[in-house]
Amino acid sequence: xxxxxxxxxxxxxxxVRGEGVWLWDEAGKKYLDALAGIAVNTLGYGHPKLxxxxxxxxxxxxxxxxxxxxxxxxxxAADRIAEIxxxxxxxxxxxxxxxxxxxxxxxxxxxxERGVAEPAIIVMEKAFHGRSLATLSATGSRKVQAxxxxxxxxxxxxxxxxxEAVRQVAEHNKNVVAVFxxxxxxxxxxxxxxxxxxxxxxxxxxxxxxxFMSDEVQCGLGRTxxxxxxxxxxxxxxxxxxxxxLASGVPVGACVVGGRARGIFKPGNHGSTFGGNPLAxxxxxxxxxxxxxxxxxxxxxKVGQVIRDGLKAELGAAPKEIRGMGLMIGMExxxxxxxxxxxxxxxxxxxxxTADNVxxxxxxxxxxxAEGRMVVERLAPLVRAFLARSSEATAAAR
Length: 398
Ligand SMILES: Cc1ncc(COP(=O)(O)O)c(C=O)c1O
Prior knowledge:
Bound molecules: pyridoxal-5'-phosphate
Structural class: alpha/beta
Number of strands: 17
Largest sheet: 4 strands, mixed
Helix content: 40-55%
Order of helices and strands: EEEHHHEHEHHEHEEEHEHEEHHEEHEEEH
Strand order of the largest sheet: 1-2-3-15
């Protein structure tokens, strides 16, 4: 019996080697990876630039010093993040939920500074923000929350892409100080915010002097063809939590602020022992520099299009919808389809199913067009066979 706590329903496969977008299991079987460790392995596996930088970091002997001292790599990473986000200050932590926890604290402190004693944050149905008490309370999924009540208070929930719902809250709730939106919901099923909706939200935030907080933990960092989803909409948020793909597999999170959120956190307001340590920061710098040097934003847009077009050409109207941006792709079926994950593994393809009936693809940004076509070649027949089996089963049940 394994002593690892039983918190995940794991597939019985262990990947032990990787190169580019390819993985090998313990038996030497080769898989095409269209998931990137859930949007983490931005540069795929064994990228020479990341490897070289991390080896040099290990050889320096200094993996960690603590935030009692200056950390030059942290300053370099923050400069790069400020440049690509267009924002001003970066707090480093170690995960997505920590980045979101920082965002929630910033919103509350912002509220208190404006004389709001019980600040509230607007959050979205079906959003996922993490599993700490505050972030699971912000998450729009009862499954994530159940059993952990009492929830943290101060969240007001509305449906995504419904501006009128936000206007109603704005009119009636004087405690609101921020809107917190995951502009493409990942865990929730690749639900894409309309760009005019995001702009409308931003307008309300401007009018009401609320913070606009964009959880780009999963959708950010180049995956959609721009560095961040808000850049597609053409405005600057006040708070942007990041994690996952930020250091291509080295654990890291960051809460990036500008605009109204600048200067809210002061010495003593927040902290993290590991946050911003030299090892993680080396990963951040190498990842951002490589995305730039190798034109991976344009690549994500192009290869994402290849995959979406390919799936549409192969499967026609059989799926309920194929949606997404760049290399963040969801294919919604009309029935639960979790079994596709195992079938894909058997066919040498790594995918995920989320929200019960949405096949989710989040490939490394280094995937080539040819590899994108291979994802389609491997996935489409599986989906076709799955749909044929489930329509036979439905017919038999009639
Ligand atoms: C949008 C979003 N926010 C936050 C998180 C939480 O990140 P972590 O698992 O690193 O705490 C996730 C993880 O899936 C996420 O997708």
